[in-house]
Amino acid sequence: MTVDAVARPRAGQKPGHVPGEPGLWVLVFGDLLVFGVFFVMVLALRGQDPAEFVAAQQTLHVEWGVLNTIVLLTSSLFVVLGVRRAAERDPRAPRLLLAAVACGLIFAGVKAIEYTTLVQDGHRPAGDEFHAYYFMFTGVHLAHVLIGMSALLFAARLARPSFTGTHRNGALEGIATFWHLVDLLWIMLFATLYLMH
Amino acid sequence: MNKHLRALCAWSGVITLVFMFVGMVVTGWLPVPGPDMTADQVAAMYEEKHDRIRFFSMMNLCAAGWSMMWFAAISAQLRRIESGRSPMWTYLQLGCGVCSSFLFCVQALTWTVAAFRPDRNPEITQAFHDMAFIWFLMPFVFAMVGALAIALCILEDKSADPVYPRWAGYANLYFAFGFPMAMFLTYAKTGPFAWDGLWPWWIPVVDYTIWSFVMSWLTHRASNRQHAEEGDATAIDMAYALRSTVSTPEPARVRESV
After folding, report:
1. What does the alpha-carbon distance between residue A152 and residue A104 come to, in Å, rounded to a whole number?
2. How far apart are CA A152 and CA A97, in angstroms?
3. Record: contact A26-B170, CB cut-off 8 A
4. Are A23 and B165 inside 8 Å of each other by CB?
5. Please, which pLDDT band fits residue A4 given cuts at 50, 70 and 90?
6. What is this structure's pTM?
7. Cα B166 from Cα B179, distance rounded (Å)
8. Using CA atoms, how far apart are residues A30 and B171, in angstroms rounded to an integer?
9. Distance from the A145 Cα atom to the nearest Cα atom in chain B, whole angstroms
10. Looking at the complex, does the CB of residue A22 fall below 8 Å from at least one CB of chain B?
11. By C-alpha distance, which of B122, B115, B109 is closest to B42?
12. What does the pLDDT average to over A89-96?
């Protein structure tokens, strides 16, 4: 997974420590850039007609959004604890990472309920621009969640105390970093689409 | 293969872009016409730009040919990363490259079909015009899966002297993420989700442009290093050189009879 030139196995945190490996941050900042553009576009949409924007926003179910925010924040906590315990060769580490995957599944289930409800209420991606943004960007984010869950399953295998690989901790940190990015993107989406009045 | 030919193949990603860019500028299709035009407006546009659109079509055919060389050049470098094991990522990337180039050809031909008979029913011209643009922008999957194959191959490179730098693996993951935005065009005729809007047009096109430059440059660098190692050796010379270092008399590909 990783290469000598970049990731060294690290015992503890040192000043100047880059989580995962430096190359990973190309992906992280690139992703944030695209979602940043999305954020600006939604702000512009709201600026065009604030009343219409808020009316479209009222069709979303804030309670499901709040639940999903809590679910993802909890999953991030599991990931932090799991990676820390994996570094200590604690046998409970894989279990914590699998708990984070379970949170991801709950998140996807809640999104499925939300999509179904919205479509039944007559709101579709091909409808008004607010709902186009809603469906497309929560969809793009959901794809991130699914990719992150696959990576966490791989991480759960790495986290076993018996796993002997040189770059185990670097890879675990990289996957954790990606999961926190997914979490951060959701908070951006949630604030923009559900809460911004 | 000699050094200059290798460099030409490596930079053909950028040459592809140049052909497309020239075609677009000459046709006056930068930015592209949007999907909100009526059939009569489309027919009038084809009447007016009759020769330019056919020129654009030819430029796109040239671009398709060059892109094939580029995908092959990248595959050749991935093959070096995967030497000695099953070259799955190489095949995947090459397969995606073949499909991308083929679709380049198809959309170019569709513009020719649309421009071929200016005197026909405008709605037929509009249908072919829609088809060309949708074939041009929407089949993001090949670029996406190709970029993912490149990314995973680079991240699996465990050698002390990797063919591509590691950050390029992560950069390809990011490029792969930019292409699916083209999917959005299926839902809109106007605004940022239409095929001339921010998400289906500007983001994937800028993404593809940066990808072409970055991967051309890195492939050129990698093939230069390969040249320094191998010189102008042909594949057959290389095979004999390898054979002489291996003790088995038969080629490795011959399977034992069961």
Report:
1. 10
2. 6
3. yes
4. yes
5. very low
6. 0.86
7. 21
8. 8
9. 13
10. yes
11. B122
12. 94
Given an 8 Å threshold on Cβ–Cβ distance, is A23 in contact with B167?
Answer: yes
The alpha carbon dihedral of B205, B209, B210, B212 has a sign of: positive
Query: Tens digits of per-residue pLDDT, A132-188?
Result: 999 999 999 999 999 999 999 999 999 998 887 777 888 999 999 999 999 999 999
Contacts of residue A197, defined as CB under 8 A and 6 or more positions apart, other chains included, come to A54, A57
A88 touches chain B (CB under 8 A): no
Q: In this predicted model, what pLDDT tens digit does every residue of A53-91 receive, in sequence order?
A: 999 999 999 999 999 999 999 999 999 999 999 999 999
Is B170 in Cβ contact with A23 (below 8 Å)? yes
Please identify among residues 143-172 of chain A the ones whose CB lies closer than 8 Å to any CB of chain B. 143
The sign of the torsion formed by the CA atoms of A184, A185, A187, A192 equals: positive
Q: What is the pLDDT of residue B227?
A: 87
- A6 contacts B191? CB cut-off 8 A: no
Number of residues that this document lists for chain B: 258
For the segment B36-60, the average pLDDT, to the nearest whole number, is 95
A21–chain B Cβ distance below 8 A for any pair: yes
Distant-in-sequence contacts of A34-37, Cβ < 8 A, 24+ apart: A34/B177, A34/B178, A34/B181, A34/B203, A35/A137, A35/A185, A35/A188, A35/A189, A37/B198, A37/B203
Contacts of A21 in chain B (CB under 8 A): 166
- Judge whether A125 is closer than 8 Å to chain B, CB to CB: yes
